[in-house]
């Protein structure tokens, strides 16, 4: 990091590190004990470590003066490494919680090993840690390449990367210690939420400033998606997390929203976290890496425009499909259902556009496992958006809601689409960023591919069975007019599916671990000093 | 090029234009669906007999949140006949009016708890929470033996005041007696026990929930909370009996 910064930038970095240490100190001192004190100490230690790193090298030589004509890739390398670390953590915890539903006493009883605390560690670790780092890192890559411009600043990318990961660490360690707001995917405590706002505003400013430097008249479509991701996630995060702290020296807070309003705000947030975090951002990734890897231009530019605006406009309406038959007013449920069905059009337009882009490159899909990851991602994107629209239909939802069908659906999207496109992008990026022509172990990509596909299929198919069985058992009446099954019977019926799901998840995790080692080997094989080398701006547009 | 294409062609060159267009397109749905919920009768009306949680129950709710019970249990009975038969009258918006945050949940790995209050004895809950498999051999719920530890009430007054500021109608006497009430609710024989009924109504359970009135434990709080679920207003039962089923 530091070698790529100019002396002035190092001084700014030093200043920010001092600030971080001070914030940590104030937090730790005012809280005294408990979660906030631990989090304050973490910030303090990180700040002090950064102070040492900076002060030891303030007077080192300046980076080359012509760096402005080169891409700035060092923060991207950091982001990719963080992506891999979070992938392994998040998925390992996923397998762990999956196992707990089959062997409830698999791990020694302690507060932090219970399902209720670990589940948000899985969701946050994987959504924010794994998916978020991948999005930020690839967005830095894509915005530079597609604009043929260097990132507008050298300090803020590091501020974003480090701040964002501090947020994620605060969040997951908080849950382990019992600190949570209980709002799904927004469980982190109020001060972590504030940190994320600061990071996010910096991210937005950096992105816009970089776009402003572009040497291309047009903003490439991948960037629109990344912009939608940045903007709408900011809006969602702020509104859903508005809360009143119980005291400024404690992690406890109460959301200002309550009851039915809270439910609507939460699922407006929750579903659009899926839409703008786990979909829009990744479509940006797809629209860049798929054409690059396959060597084919996007099939239809016009469809990409229509699909983009369709997704941005329709998605915001659909959150209420999480609240069918609840105390939410009927007309809001109906709106959610209607827009969910309409959403299929732009979703399939995007998926179809991606698959049609591969026309003429099918031999590459056959031979290149990396491209196959992207292809399968597009297919699963199509499948899970179809399933999603279907599940949003009120009578279907009466069967599926609250059951494992939803969890199966979620993972067909997250394993099949999100994780696959990330792996495709990683296998494209890592050799490129470390000056290699290919990954260290090309065969391992194939292995990973088949582990991932079989893991996903086992996971999804077993939970379809689980969910439908559950839903039917809950609603079946016996001939005497009373309910045929007790709740407990439906719990017992889940055992084989939960076991299968754990196995599927373990396969998927094995693939991710293989990917991490493959990347490690590739990084190790990189020429010395590659970290500090920036690639010159390309004379041609990247796509 | 048709005009709209031309418009978009030009929009693609103006980054702030794209920003404005995205914010505009992504705001409409949320505004239309959320804003009315703060005004329409169906979602803002609160039944007269709805009471806020007593301090001990609130402490229990915070533990319920801390332990992530909501990850496996919903508190929202949908208006479907099998759910009504299984769990009781469907949940009303008004019932969670004082809930910050709501705990409707999204996954039923375990059964809905919206009306679990008074379904089991305190002793059953205590045994069940210490190890669910002692009472339900095939259960997959986690064990919570550490709930027998002492309850930390240092933040409770501040918590009640914060909720009050957010609009939960705690009155002055309730706000002033948080420290007394939290203890008294688990000590039925103490002098302060009557205060609970006075301040929160006579339907509030005042018992040594974990069997030991000497020590105030997290278990007292959780069980008090569980026993309060679905009992804080009679409105849902009224509505269900008025309507032909
Ligand atoms: C190694 C693979 C994985 C395994 C074994 C796994 C396992 C699990 C389990 C057991 C749950 C809890 C389900 C329940 O409450 O019954 C869950 C929830 C969830 N997981 Fe995963 N997971 C994996 C990968 C992922 C990935 C890659 C993502 C996202 C990119 C993800 C996102 C989610 C989300 C969003 C939920 C919440 C679902 C809901 O509330 O309906 N998971 N996962």
What tags apply to this protein structure?
heterodimer; A: 543 residues; mainly alpha; 18 helices; 2 strands; 71% helix; 1% strand; globular; B: 245 residues; Cytochrome Bc1 Complex, Chain D, domain 2; 13 helices; elongated; binds protoporphyrin IX containing FE
Q: What are the bound molecules?
A: protoporphyrin IX containing FE
What pair of chains forms the biggest interface?
A-B, 95 and 85 residues
Secondary-structure element series of chain A: HHHHHHHEEHHHHHHHHHHH
Distance from N terminus to C terminus of chain B (CA atoms, Å) equals 60 Å
CATH top level class name of the largest domain in chain B: Mainly Alpha
- How large is the share of residues in beta strands of chain A? under 5%
Helix percent of chain B reads 40-55%
CATH superfamily of the largest domain in chain A: Cytochrome c oxidase-like, subunit I domain
CATH architecture of the largest domain in chain B: Orthogonal Bundle
| pLDDT < 50 stretches of chain B | none
Overall mean pLDDT of chain A stands at 93
**Span between N and C termini of chain A?**
28 Å
Radius of gyration of chain B: 23 Å
Report the sheet with the most strands of chain B, covering strand number, pairing sense and barrel closure.
none
Secondary structure: elements and pairs:
The complex is a heterodimer of chains A (543) and B (245).
Chain A: H1 7-31, H2 35-55, H3 74-100, H4 115-147, H5 155-176, H6 190-212, H7 221-241, E1 243-245, E2 253-255, H8 259-294, H9 301-315, H10 330-342, H11 344-357, H12 362-367, H13 369-391, H14 394-400, H15 404-433, H16 442-475, H17 487-493, H18 495-524
Helix pairs in contact in A: 1-2, 2-5, 3-4, 3-5, 3-18, 4-5, 4-8, 5-6, 6-7, 7-8, 7-9, 8-9, 8-13, 8-15, 9-11, 11-13, 13-15, 13-16, 15-16, 15-18, 16-17, 16-18
Chain B: H1 3-11, H2 15-34, H3 41-44, H4 55-66, H5 81-87, H6 122-130, H7 132-135, H8 156-165, H9 172-176, H10 178-184, H11 193-200, H12 218-228, H13 235-242
Helix pairs in contact in B: 4-12, 6-12
The structure holds protoporphyrin IX containing FE.
Protoporphyrin IX containing FE (HEM) sits between chains A (91, 94-95, 97-98, 119, 122-123, 126-127, 131, 184, 406-407, 410-411, 414-415, 418-419, 505, 508-509) and B (71, 106-107, 109).
């Amino acid at each position: 990091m530091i070698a790529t910064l100019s002396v002035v930038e190092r001084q700014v970095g030093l200043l920010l590190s001092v600030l971080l240490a001070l914030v940590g100190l104030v937090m730790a001192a005012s809280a005294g004990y408990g979660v906030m004190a631990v989090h304050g100490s973490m910030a303090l230690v990180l700040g002090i470590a950064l102070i040492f790193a900076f002060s030891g090298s303030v007077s080192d030589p300046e980076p080359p003066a012509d760096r402005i004509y080169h891409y700035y890739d060092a923060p991207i390398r950091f982001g990719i490494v963080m992506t891999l670390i979070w992938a392994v953590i998040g998925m390992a915890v996923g397998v762990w919680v999956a196992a707990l539903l089959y062997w409830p006493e698999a791990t020694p009883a302690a507060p932090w090993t219970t399902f209720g605390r670990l589940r948000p560690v899985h969701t946050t670790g994987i959504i924010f840690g794994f998916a978020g780092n991948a999005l930020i890192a690839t967005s830095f890559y894509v915005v530079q390449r597609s604009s043929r411009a260097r990132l507008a600043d050298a300090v803020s990318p590091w501020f974003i990367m480090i701040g964002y990961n501090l947020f994620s660490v605060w969040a997951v360690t908080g849950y382990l210690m019992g600190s949570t707001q209980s709002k799904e995917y927004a469980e982190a405590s109020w001060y972590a939420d504030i940190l994320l706002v600061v990071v996010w505003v910096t991210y937005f400013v950096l992105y816009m400033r970089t776009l402003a430097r572009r040497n291309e008249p047009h903003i490439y479509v991948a960037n629109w998606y990344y912009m939608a991701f940045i903007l709408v996630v900011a809006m969602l995060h702020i509104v859903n997390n508005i809360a009143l702290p119980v005291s400024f020296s404690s992690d406890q807070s109460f959301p200002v929203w309550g009851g039915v309003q809270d439910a609507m705000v939460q699922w407006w947030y929750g579903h659009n976290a899926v839409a703008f975090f786990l979909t829009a951002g990744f479509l940006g990734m797809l629209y860049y890496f798929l054409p690059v890897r396959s060597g084919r231009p996007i099939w239809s530019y016009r469809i990409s425009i229509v699909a983009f605006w369709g997704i941005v406009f329709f998605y915001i309406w659909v959150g209420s499909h999480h609240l069918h038959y609840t105390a939410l007013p009927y007309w809001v449920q109906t709106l959610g259902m209607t827009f969910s069905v309409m959403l299929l059009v732009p979703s399939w337009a995007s998926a179809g556009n991606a698959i049609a882009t591969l026309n003429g490159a099918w031999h590459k899909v056959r031979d290149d496992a990396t491209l196959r990851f992207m292809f399968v991602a597009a297919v699963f994107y199509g499948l899970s958006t179809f399933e999603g629209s279907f599940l949003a239909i009120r009578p279907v939802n009466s069967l599926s809601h609250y059951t494992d069908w939803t969890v199966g659906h979620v993972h067909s999207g997250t394993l099949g689409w999100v994780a696959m496109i990330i792996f495709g992008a990683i296998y494209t990026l890592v050799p490129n960023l470390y000056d290699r022509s290919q990954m260290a172990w090309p065969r391992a990509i194939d292995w990973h591919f088949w582990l991932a596909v079989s893991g996903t299929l086992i996971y999804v198919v077993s939970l379809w069975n689980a969910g439908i069985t559950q839903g039917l058992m809950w609603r079946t009446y016996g001939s005497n007019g009373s309910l045929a099954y007790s709740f407990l019977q439906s719990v017992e019926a889940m055992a084989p599916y939960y076991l299968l799901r754990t196995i599927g998840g373990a396969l998927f995790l094995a693939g991710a671990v293989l990917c991490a080692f493959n990347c490690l080997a590739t990084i190790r094989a990189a020429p010395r000093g590659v970290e500090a080398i920036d690639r010159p701006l390309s004379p041609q547009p990247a796509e | 090029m048709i005009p709209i294409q031309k418009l978009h062609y030009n929009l693609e060159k103006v980054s702030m234009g794209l920003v404005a267009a995205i914010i505009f397109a992504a705001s409409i749905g949320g505004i239309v669906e959320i804003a009315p919920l703060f005004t329409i009768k169906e979602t803002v009306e609160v039944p007269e007999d709805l009471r806020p949680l007593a301090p001990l129950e609130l402490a229990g709710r915070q533990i319920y949140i801390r332990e992530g019970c909501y990850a496996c249990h919903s508190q929202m009975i949908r208006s479907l006949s099998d759910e009504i038969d299984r769990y009781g009258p469907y949940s009303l918006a008004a019932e969670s009016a004082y809930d910050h945050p709501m705990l409707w949940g999204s996954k039923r790995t375990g059964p809905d708890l919206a009306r679990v209050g008074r379904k089991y004895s305190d002793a059953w809950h205590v045994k069940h929470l210490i190890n669910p498999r002692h009472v339900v051999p095939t259960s997959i719920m986690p064990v919570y033996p550490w709930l027998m530890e002492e309850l930390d009430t240092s933040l409770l007054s501040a918590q009640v005041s914060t909720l009050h500021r957010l609009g939960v109608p705690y009155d002055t006497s309730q706000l002033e007696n948080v420290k007394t009430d939290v203890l008294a609710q688990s000590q039925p024989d103490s002098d302060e026990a009557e205060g609970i009924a006075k301040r929160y109504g006579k339907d509030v359970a005042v018992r040594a929930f974990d069997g030991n009135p000497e020590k105030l434990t997290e278990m007292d709080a959780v069980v008090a909370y569980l026993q309060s679920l679905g009992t804080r207003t009679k409105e849902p039962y009224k509505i269900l009996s008025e309507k032909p089923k």
